Amino acid sequence: MMDIKGALNKIAQRQDLTGEEMRSVMNIIMNGEATPSQIGAFLIGMRVKGESVGEIAAAVSILREKMVKVDAPEHAIDIVGTGGDGAETLNISTATSIVVAAAGVPVAKHGNRALSSKSGASDVLQALGVKIDLTPDVIARCIAEAGIGFMFAPAHHPAMKHVGPTRVELGTRTLFNLLGPQSNPAGARRYMLGVYDKRWVEPVAAALLANQAVSAWVVHGADGLDELSTTGPSFVASIKGGSLTSFEVTPEDAGLPRATLADLKGADPAHNAARLRELLDGVKSAYRDIVVFNAAAAFIVAGRADTLKLGAQLAAQEIDSGRAKATLQKLIHVSNN
């Protein structure tokens, strides 16, 4: 059993921890047995050393053990970003989740309040009228009846309270920005996961694979977005059939036009919610295009489309038929009753 002082010494020598060492340190931290200064030293030490795939995968396994779980279908997908890309866009993965759920793919959406933007997933859903502080059984009912349920991260990861204050005081990205999105409380094994930096695309995909992900796209836009971007190329690491491949995609691959980041700019939750409602009403915009693009990829992950073009056609159908709008209405209804 490695204690936290032993871990700090090893990290200070720029040596990676083994999986077992990482698991024991994470257990100490998550059980509230580490001091704030030890947690801060550990997180910054890891960041300076550089977190290995093995360390990330081991840390995720502890977070998953300690989370409050939700029942969901075996083939559920999570569409989630690390946040912290600093772009302050409209809510892309939240809108994407609604469109994907409309096509009959169960979505177990994991999310939080805004990190670096003005409006995170939970902020915009609340502005739309979705109740987010739900018990696991009500969330399971949302997934069963509406096709989508939202899991508010702090409610499902109570052990994270031991690191929260230190993370706020550090004010910089740490290992935990990468762990939360990989720790889906519904045990989803299919992921469409956006990361805030290109260097994390392959390591996060490798960590998901180590933790039994069946299918995933881990993505980062060349413009910095933690989504597939319509402003230019995006980097992808894909998990399929137990192996990992990396490639680039562009909006043209899905038959979509390019946009600028200014076209995708968001504001407060009320503004972003209004734009999301417009999108579901069928209004054509750069926002619609980027949501269709990300939904297309999610349909590939879910096994519902073989190409981005076909996935984009399916996404457009779900919006234009009114099914995506009806899915949101159903989620609002079930979450409030």
TrEMBL record:
Q: Which residues bind Mg(2+) 2?
A: D226, E227
Which keywords does this Swiss-Prot/TrEMBL entry list?
A: Amino-acid biosynthesis, Aromatic amino acid biosynthesis, Glycosyltransferase, Magnesium, Metal-binding, Transferase, Tryptophan biosynthesis
Q: Where does Mg(2+) 1 bind?
A: S93, E227
Listed binding positions for anthranilate 2 are: R167
Return the cofactor note field.
Binds 2 magnesium ions per monomer.
What are the binding positions for anthranilate 1 in this chain?
Answer: G81, N112
The Glycosyl transferase family domain sits at: 75-324
Q: InterPro entries of this UniProt entry?
A: Anthranilate_Pribosyl_Tfrase, Glycosyl_Trfase_fam3, Glycosyl_Trfase_fam3_N_dom, Glycosyl_Trfase_fam3_N_dom_sf, Nuc_phospho_transferase
Q: Where does 5-phospho-alpha-D-ribose 1-diphosphate bind?
A: 81, 84-85, 89, 91-94, 109-117, 121
- The Glycosyl transferase family 3 N-terminal domain covers which part of the protein? 7-66
Task: List the pathway annotation.
Answer: Amino-acid biosynthesis; L-tryptophan biosynthesis; L-tryptophan from chorismate: step 2/5
Q: State any GO CC term.
A: cytosol
**Molecular function terms from GO:** anthranilate phosphoribosyltransferase activity; magnesium ion binding
Q: Does the keyword Amino-acid biosynthesis apply?
A: yes
Biological process terms in GO annotation: L-tryptophan biosynthetic process
Q: What is its EC number?
A: 2.4.2.18
What's the superkingdom here?
Bacteria
* Reaction equation(s) it catalyzes: N-(5-phospho-beta-D-ribosyl)anthranilate + diphosphate = 5-phospho-alpha-D-ribose 1-diphosphate + anthranilate
* Statement: the UniProt record of this protein carries the keyword Magnesium: yes
**Family annotation (Pfam families):** Glycos_trans_3N (PF02885), Glycos_transf_3 (PF00591)
Q: What does this protein do?
A: Catalyzes the transfer of the phosphoribosyl group of 5-phosphorylribose-1-pyrophosphate (PRPP) to anthranilate to yield N-(5'-phosphoribosyl)-anthranilate (PRA).
Spell out the PANTHER family in the cross-references. ANTHRANILATE PHOSPHORIBOSYLTRANSFERASE (PTHR43285:SF2)
What is stated as this protein's family in its record? In the C-terminal section; belongs to the anthranilate phosphoribosyltransferase family.
Q: What is this protein called?
A: Anthranilate phosphoribosyltransferase
Species assigned in the record: Devosia nanyangense
